[in-house]
Write a structure and sequence with these properties.
By secondary structure, the chain is of the alpha+beta class. It contains 2 helices and 4 strands, in the order ββααββ. A hairpin with a 2-residue loop joins strand 3 (about 75-90) and strand 4 (about 90-105). The protein is elongated. The two termini are about 25 Å apart. The model is unreliable at about 30-35 (pLDDT under 50).
């Protein structure tokens, strides 16, 4: 499955358009991560607990979007975008969306 944030894929032509596909997950912070983040605010540095949390959320959201695209018969998702929103104090949603399409190789000379 091809995944891109562009409208076109070099060397490919879009032969079928399936429409919007999405994936999301809602994640809550862990108390331990909040304590570590508070300490990092004092001394500086990467908040690794939050970095890992967001990385896992991105992977889960993308996996859900790709599963939806495959069920439609797509072999690519174009115009992929991410969005986040706060659900409640300590929890947020990571949302990914794009356009599911079927592509084919371009004919030589086109």
């Amino acid at each position: 499955m091809i995944l891109t944030n562009t409208e076109n894929i070099p060397g490919k032509v879009i032969v079928e358009h399936f429409g919007l596909v999405t994936g999301s997950t809602v994640r809550a912070r862990h108390v331990g991560a909040d304590i570590a983040a508070g300490l990092k605010n004092v001394v500086g540095g990467e908040l690794k607990g939050y970095t890992q949390l967001l990385e896992e959320a991105r992977k889960e959201s993308v996996s859900r979007m790709l599963r939806q695209a495959q069920q439609l018969g797509a072999n690519a998702v174009i115009n992929v975008r991410f969005s986040t929103s706060s659900i409640t104090q300590g929890a947020c949603e990571l949302y990914v969306y794009g356009t599911a399409v079927r592509t084919a190789d371009k004919e030589p000379g086109n």
